[in-house]
Structure formats: structure tokens, C-alpha cells
Amino acid sequence: MSALSIRLLVIVSVSMLFTRAWAGDAAQFQFGMMYAEHIRGVGLYAGLETEGVMPNVSGYADATLLASNSYDQEEPVFGGVSVGVRSALPVPLSPYVGVGVYVGENKKLTRADHDQLDNDGNGVVDEYGEMKSDNTLMSAVYPEVGWRLALGSSFTMRMMGRYMVSSFGRPHDDWFYGISLAFGNE
Ligand SMILES: [Ca+2]
Ligand SMILES: [Ca+2]
């Protein structure tokens, strides 16, 4: 799937989710933390989830903002949005499984001392250690597993693990771990 079609899919899915939420279906706002294992990124998680897109299946859209020192030193933060579906058992404490797609903006410093360009504008071409920052759109598909603790409709906690299969290739695949809380419903 191309980055453009993934982008379109994300936009359409987010729009549908918000339409459902505004139409009065139960939608739950979730917030929490996320950690990316391989890039050692830490950041914030916020999502909107609505039950019953299919029997026992909820749909969600969320956003993550991660900071990692493996990214550009001046702008070590990157953001992404995901849409996906999840299915848990109708009991208070249940494991769950899901799938989703992610698209994010990824800025990374890479070596640029062999491209015959003065990438950093200091007047010297290809000096030792010259770097450039690449700004690329990263997309990923992921299976998700985790646990959901739901106490009535007033409190939900999720522990999630997502294996991000990156558009940049297998060396960039990564585990994202998160914990999210939600209070109330609708
Ligand atoms: Ca230079
Ligand atoms: Ca260069």
C-alpha cells in the first residue's frame, strides 16, 4: 500500500469515527503514555474509541507524539496517527487483539559526507562527519495485543503492545508499548 493510500485511509477512518462519536454512539477518550523499544522513544498517547463497529469489536483513532534521541537533534519529536480495530471479551479484565495502520512524520539525521553537496551550509562540501536531516513519511501496519480492564463504563485501562511493521523495511520494525486510561463514556 502506498503512503498516499494509507494517508487517505487514515483520514477517511478518522472522519467516520468522529461522525459516529458526534452521532451519539458511545465514544471514549483515552490518554496515556507510549514507549518505542528500538528507537527508545517516549511520549504521549491520545485516542478516541467507539464500541460496536462490529459485534464485540471497537474502532479507534489515536495520535502519538514521541521524542527519541535517534531522531533529529534539534527536532527529536515526531508525531503519528493510527486507526484500527480491537476485540476483547465482554468481561471486566480481558486480553484483546487488534490490527491497525499508522502514519507518521519521521525526521532523522543521516550521514551526508559522500554526496558532493554542502548539506549543512557551512561552506565545506562533504567534510568529515557532515550530516543532513531526512524528513520522510513513515507508515506501518501493526498487530496489537494487550489487556483491557473495564469497570462498567466509567473507567477503562489498557496495556497495549504493537508490533510496527515499518514501510522503511524490517530493520525499522519496532515494538510500541503503551498504557492508556479513560474515564466515563460519551
Ligand atoms: Ca558542509
Ligand atoms: Ca555532503
Question: Would you summarize the structure shown here?
Answer:
With 186 residues, this protein is mainly β. It contains one helix and eight strands; from the N terminus they run αββββββββ.
Break the fold down into its secondary structure elements and pairings:
Blueprint (H helix, E strand, L loop, with lengths): L2 H20 L4 E10 L4 E14 L2 E11 L9 E12 L4 E19 L19 E21 L3 E12 L7 E10 L3
Antiparallel strand pairs: 1-2, 1-8, 2-3, 3-4, 4-5, 5-6, 6-7, 7-8
The structure holds calcium ion (CA) (2 copies).
The site of one calcium ion has 8 residues, from loops.
Tally of domains: 1
Name the beta content range.
over 45%
Report mean pLDDT, rounded to a whole number: 86
In the predicted model, the low-confidence regions spanning at least 5 consecutive residues are: none
- Kindly report how far apart the N and C termini lie: 34 Å
Largest pleated sheet: 8 strands, antiparallel, barrel
Number of DSSP strand runs: 8
General description of the model:
With 186 residues, the chain is mainly β. The chain has a single domain (3-71, 79-102, 141-183), classed as Porin, CATH 2.40.160.20. It is 11% helix and 59% strand. The two termini are 34 Å apart. The structure holds calcium ion (2 copies). One calcium ion binds at residues 118, 120, 122, 124, 127, 130.
